[in-house]
Amino acid sequence: MAIAYRVDGMTCDGCARAVERAVKAAAPGCEVVVDRASGIVRVGEDVAEPVLRAAIERAGFGFAGRG
Length: 67
Known about the structure:
alpha+beta; 36% helix; globular
């Protein structure tokens, strides 16, 4: 089961790819689905929220909590 989180600042497909790469680098093997239009990233339950937050913020985007 995936958990959805809101990400602020994804304005283009390149942004969505950057978020996806950042999350995959922080949690290798994790399933990641990014929806730029809604500003949502869905990840597997095995990713700790602080790890996800740090990865997204390091990539230059805002982490806005569960979506």
